[in-house]
Amino acid sequence: MKAFAVLAGCVVMTAATMVTGADNAPTAPKKKPDVGYYATTQDVVEEILKQAKVTKNDTVIDLGCGDGRFPITAAKIYGCKGIGYELDPEWVAKAKARAQTEKVTDLVDIRAEDIFTADLRKVTVVCLFLLPELNTRLIPQLEKLPEGARIVTHEFDIPGLIPDRKTEYISRQDESEHLLYFYSVPLKRAPVGKRAPE
């Protein structure tokens, strides 16, 4: 599976690194992205939003949004609010430019912030394309989602949680099979020490 192989091979970054100013004096640590960005093909993006049953009343958030295609597509197709969190300044700039090109800046908010600081209390749809250990670290935030909120993870599940369902979708663009895991709030915990059943 192309997407699985490429993302699994991404280098997970360290939490923070020291930077220096013009006078070579160290400044505050600046956090780097926890994982490299690998774009989801557009047809998979649209399939995920469709299967998540997005409507104009939803707020869709992508944690680690890259070029912003999830919140931008949600806003363009469904007319709903979209939020993207991304630390890489290059991708932040590209996502904001894309939102302008698609004329959805009134609905889409791209934030240059750490995904682990995201306030999800008013979010209704969460899209994730992260490695399992990062998905697990997000559980405390996901538990604050409102009842009925939906979570979709692409390729990797959330260890410790039981998905409502798992589907397979073959992309017309990359001709690869993509695994999609769907969860809803209240979240269902897997027995301690056991991975959720496939």
Summarize the structure.
This protein has 198 residues and is α/β, with parallel strands linked by helices. The chain has six helices and seven strands.
Biggest sheet: strands, sense, closure?
7 strands, mixed
CATH topology: Rossmann fold
Shape: globular
What is the chain-wise order of helices and strands? Answer: HHEHEHEEHHEEE
- Please state the average pLDDT score: 86
Secondary structure class reads alpha/beta
Query: Which architecture name does CATH use?
Result: 3-Layer(aba) Sandwich
Strand fraction band?
Answer: 15-25%
Q: Kindly, what is the distance between the CA atoms of the first and last residues, rounded to a whole number of angstroms?
A: 17 Å
Low-confidence residue ranges = 2-29
Q: Taking Cα atoms only, what radius of gyration do you get, to the nearest Å?
A: 17 Å
Looking at this structure, what is the CATH superfamily? Vaccinia Virus protein VP39
How many structurally independent domains?
1
Please estimate the helix content.
25-40%
- Strand order across the largest sheet: 3-2-1-4-5-7-6
Tally of strands: 7
Number of helices: 6
State the CATH class.
Alpha Beta
Provide structural commentary.
This protein is of the alpha/beta class and 198 residues long. The protein has one domain (36-184): Vaccinia Virus protein VP39 (Rossmann fold, 3-Layer(aba) Sandwich). It contains 6 helices and 7 strands, in the order ααβαβαββααβββ. It has helices at residues 2-8, 42-51, 69-78, 89-101, 132-137, 139-142, and strands at 59-63, 81-85, 108-111, 125-128, 150-154, 165-170, 177-184. Strands 3-2-1-4-5-7-6 form a 7-stranded mixed beta sheet. Helix 2 (42-51) packs across helix 3 (69-78). The chain is globular.
